[in-house]
Amino acid sequence: xxxxxxxxxxxxxxxxxxxxxxxxxxxxxxxxxxxxxxxxxxxxxxxxxxxxxxxxxxxxxxxxxxxxxxxxxxxxxx
Length: 78
Description:
Blueprint lengths: L1 E3 L6 E9 L3 E6 L5 E7 L2 E8 L6 E8 L4 E8 L2
């Protein structure tokens, strides 16, 4: 999973490699609240997220499949 640009103004892209059909992409704040949730279809995916409405801070990006979870982070600064 690639997340760019990372230091973001709120708009960023997540690029995945080959994912299964039961994959969930989530953006989570540091208190554990899920603020973005999307089901992905199988294969390679590119997802653009506009989170300009979010306050400055660090957010967790979780890519959850049936078997594994991949974790990344994004820093949002306006």
